[in-house]
Amino acid sequence: MQLSSANFKSAARAALHEPNLQAAMAENRNFAAHVRVQVDGTANFQGLRAQAKAIKDHTLAHLDHYLERYEAAAIKQGTQVHWAQTPEQAQQIVVDICRQASARSVIKGKTMIGEEMGINDALARAGIERYETDLGEYILQLADEPPSHINGPAIHKTLEQVQDLFHEHHKDLGRESFLHEPAELLAEARRLLRKRFFEAEVGITGANFLIAEDGSHVLVTNEGNGDLTSLLPKVRIVLASIEKVLPSRADAGVHLQLLALSATGQPLTSYTSLYGGTKNAGELDGAEQCHVVLLDNGRSEMLAGEFRPMLRCIRCAACMDNCPVYNWVGGHAYGWIYPGPMGSIWTPQLTNLEQTVDLPNACTLNGRCAEVCPMQIPLPDMMRVLRSQHWQQQLTATTTRWGIGLWAALASRPRLYRLLTAMAARTMAWAGSKRGRLSRLPLARGWTEQRDMPAPQGATFQQLWQQRQADKNGSEQ
Amino acid sequence: MSSSRQAILSDVRKALGREAHSVIEPHPFKERIALSQAGIDPYQQFLARLEVTGVTLEALADISQVPEAVAAFCTRHQLHGPLAVAPALASLPWQQTGLQTDVGTAQGHHPIGVAQAFAGIAATGSLVMLANADNPAGLNFLPEYHLVVLDKSRLLGQLDQLWPLLSHPDEGTAQAVQLITGPSSTADIGGQLLYGAHGPRAVHILLID
């Protein structure tokens, strides 16, 4: 997907005035509130959270070891492990496997690593037909849009929009009546996709975790599409990234419960499957070939520095579901595949700093994302690191730079600072003396459009502080 | 691409500031935390979880009653067409019911799949299915109705109790371990929860007491 994060501001502004999107985001806020109730009602959630973090920190500190162990165990199970440093290498690996399998069509489950490596375009260029099987991804394939959420890719689409899309695209398949009921729409998609499951030569899925102990990969879905994609075609391709490895099945168990709870409030998703290689002799179902692609794409670099905690991310989406920015502007405004708070850290790391300056600056630093993150990733701290990187590399917007420079000049001259703030306070008190509030302020129209500023009353903070110190000293003597 | 492999592993080691094959610190935990509620009978907890996930359960005194119960289920839901039955359950008295049974995996035309669970997990309300020659995985996903035989003695309290059982040498190798916690569901159409997305619209447990 083309990086368009540089347009964040205009895209966000447009999103706020898009009625369909606003209706859909209101729906997401309700859902997020429901999930929080489930999480808060889980007695040992905090213990689970602390353990999951410690397990992942240990794994990342020995990532080379666990990757090698995973690879050896996977090969033993008949899986072929492919390593890709870049998205282009990964695309080539997948296309080559499809060609070797003489694949005309592939069925695909939801995979964010697939989005990251641009697999959809690569398959199209290779002339291989692709059918998305996750219902949300299927809707987006019809709409020709990227996902706007890492778990619910089509959460930005309302029921009415899905009705229209199905009507338009399923006309050619002989349907005449307009379907209104969600259950009817689902039945239609199920029927159409069922055929594709049986036809496809290759099935492509993501992986939520890789397990070093036994070389298996874990797949989490509620629809069961991931399992059908894994089981029915002869060739299975699993797209993963290097930080998804965990030492053991027991470790995966800890993370799986945390993931399901944080993502949807379920104790486990409907289908949580551990796949270990190809089908054994005498088995009726399963793939004859199993390929796992391990993508790096900048992750090994992240391991070295301040962004290592981001590699703990289990993609539950709690950070975006609880973000006051994401929950109003939606995912597309962020301009790449990972939106919301986690995306504001991932995107600069996996693409570049220059075109993603707006993302960490769109953050209000309210800290909610870090509070809800099951892996305790210090997202706001990392936003601050990015902002200081912008400053050092002179990427900060000119007006901001100028403003910060002016403030720094003032703040380092205490007398001047006191004088000016006292003047400003008196002016504001005078301007708002009638109503006790100010409905307009110079340079802050965006702020005062939504609310009034209370007019300053009495002394400034510094005067009050001095008074307090003096009183304290007086009472001590 | 072995050169990519070398490059990635070397980049990882460089980032971690270590040479190849350095000493590994021991894993920080012996015991894993699992979701559970102290002082609650696992069976009662399992039933409570099933209420939430939308899975139904009927208790049978003996496994030989399974075919009869499946026949009654078909009548209740007005289901016709052949049953796909796991080889693990092939020896049950299916003939008595008059149902047409295909032993093996499910195909697209089977409305019902009957399979045997390896275990159940009370804390999460999950069924544990091992995909192998005796229990083909297609049974769990292709039919609209998934009927699962679970021996009550195989009901575990927490997820964490499952892993040692899987590593037991008697279990052989399974191509997949599938934890099933509810029917196939989706909320992708306008945020409404719907059952039967790609897999079963209903999961029914036949619990052998």
UniProtKB/TrEMBL annotation, chain A:
GO molecular function, one term: 4 iron, 4 sulfur cluster binding
UniProtKB keywords: 4Fe-4S, Electron transport, Iron, Iron-sulfur, Metal-binding, Repeat, Transport
Taxonomy, superkingdom: Bacteria
InterPro entries linked: 4Fe4S_Fe-S-bd, 4Fe4S_Fe_S_CS, FTHF_cligase-like_sf, Helical_ferredxn, LUD_dom, LutB/LldF, LutB_C, NagB/RpiA_transferase-like
GO biological process assignments: lactate metabolic process
Pfam families hit by this protein: Fer4_8, LUD_dom, LutB_C
rRNA processing recorded as keyword: no
Location of the 4Fe-4S ferredoxin-type domain: 353-383
Transmembrane regions: none
PANTHER family: LACTATE UTILIZATION PROTEIN B (PTHR47153:SF2)
Protein name: L-lactate dehydrogenase complex protein LldF
From TrEMBL, chain B:
Short name of one Pfam family: LUD_dom
Domain of life: Bacteria
SUPFAM superfamilies: NagB/RpiA/CoA transferase-like
Alphabetized InterPro entries for the sequence: FTHF_cligase-like_sf, LUD_dom, NagB/RpiA_transferase-like
All copies of domain LUD, residue ranges: 111-208
Name of the protein described by the UniProt record: L-lactate dehydrogenase complex protein LldG
